[in-house]
């Protein structure tokens, strides 16, 4: 009978051997269907353990099929979620920062830094349905 958990040999864990294409297909499916990227505590290590593959295999698959590192890919998925949420009528009065937090970013600073790095603009200025508030000087 096949066991559902990994075998441990001498303190070392055995992993399933899959190709990059298979690993990325599974990772992408988890992101699309389970929306794992919304969890601000998501790590490549956690995901690799969930999939029972080595973290380096996850890293290599994501790098190969997206052209960016795992953290940058996750940030881009989160930013796409922010953009999706920003246009929903029920979020009209939500702050950009709150949408970032709901999309898996740990804090406002992390969200803004990632947004600027990926989109090359400030989120409050470029998100659909958001108007940049001008400061009035006295």
Radius of gyration: 19 Å
Task: Choose one word for the global shape.
Answer: elongated
Number of strands: 2
Summarize the main sheet. 2 strands, antiparallel
SSE sequence, one letter per element: EEHHHHHHH
Class inferred from helices and paired strands: mainly alpha
Summary of the model, kept short:
The chain is mainly α and 138 residues long. 54% of the residues lie in helices and 3% in strands. The protein contains 7 helices and 2 strands.
Could you characterize what this model shows?
The chain is mainly α and about 140 residues long. Strands 1-2 form a two-stranded antiparallel sheet. Strand 1 and strand 2 form a beta hairpin. Helix 1 packs across helix 3 and helix 4 crosses helix 6. The longest helix has 17 residues. The N and C termini lie far apart (about 75 Å).
Q: What are the SSEs and their pairings?
A:
Layout: E1 8-9, E2 12-13, H1 20-34, H2 44-51, H3 55-66, H4 70-86, H5 96-102, H6 108-119, H7 123-126
Antiparallel strand pairs: 1-2
Helix pairs in contact: 1-3, 2-3, 4-5, 4-6
Keywords:
disordered N terminus; elongated; single chain; 3% strand; 2 strands; two-stranded antiparallel sheet; mainly alpha
